[in-house]
Amino acid sequence: MIQPQLLRRLTDLIDQSHNILVASHKNCGDASGAVTACQTVLQAQGKTVTTFLPAVVPPVFSYLVNSERVVTNPDLIDWSDYDLFLCVDAAEPHLTGLGHKFANRPSSLITVNLDHHLTNPDYGDVNIVDRSAAAACAMLAEWFLAAHYEVSPAAATSLLTGILTDTGSFCNPATNESALRQAGELLRLGANFGRFLSEVVRSKTLPELRVWGKAFERLQINNDLGIATTLITLQDLAEAGVAADAIEGVANFLNDLADVRAVLVLKEQSDGTIKGSFRTTREDVDVSALAKVLGGGGHKKAAGFTITGRLIEKNGQWQVVD
User: Fold this and answer.
1) Which of 90, 46, 47, 38 is nearest to 65 (CA)?
2) What is the overall mean pLDDT for the chain?
3) What angle, 0 to 180 degrees and rounded to 10, lies between the N-to-C axes of helices 136-146 and 4-16?
4) Which of 90, 127, 137, 166 has its CA at 20 to 30 Å from residue 28's CA atom?
5) 157 and 41 both lie in a single domain
6) pLDDT of residue 174
7) pLDDT of residue 173
8) CA–CA separation, 13 vs 243, rounded Å?
9) Final residue of a structural domain among 143, 170, 200
10) Backbone angles phi, psi at 158, to 5 degrees
11) Whether 281 contacts 247, CB under 8 Å
């Protein structure tokens, strides 16, 4: 739960602002839901709102209101155009794709850091970081309702999407009483749960499932560490003819494995990097600490990192090489 004085401070900042920039990280239902909901709700308050993500909203979330209006080119962002910067669901500024500009923002531009990641270093001028929250969208729902903002059914659907994706449809350990309560309020406001089910949960195609099959086929368990590991390469995606977002959710699915302490999924990316996703259901394991060692971060139960390299198979063993 967010401290009431912080919610009032944020509402006051919105009241005093005219042009607001809302940014988050890429390829995430919580991030996409957060920025699209902010645009809809804050525009209803008479504000001019620009939303920014470092990549287009994944096709699976294209049903979200205003998803087509998200800016992805950092060259189009000029700090002087805004009087408030709202950074949501981003553990660090660089994850927004605006990190290279962050240090040069004018002192008059107030940065609000609204997030739920365990490793967030409180980088904003105003930090609203609830590390117990299940999703940034749950925090936004709490704020919007406390501020008595109008939350349309479309905005409620965006927020519910964020909560459902970050809790694995209420199946992972991030699920808590607050998330369930906020989801109930959003359903009352007209959130379209059926749309989420049809577009996100029941949307897998045969080629996509074949790629998931590759991940299952390569699954290995390190008995000493108790970590299950698998990987997906760019060649896997190319051969199946699917986009990179087709493998989103593999780590969450494998988190149901019995008798392992944690799961690690490595995914080769087109920019010459490898994205690692850690998951665990164990109370005595903090995967954010593991991710932090590799330059990443996240939550105790779900975290990630990105390293430079490629995945190659040599003598029957997979390796990360530069």
Assistant:
1) 38
2) 94
3) 80
4) 127
5) yes
6) 85
7) 82
8) 39
9) 200
10) -60, -45
11) no
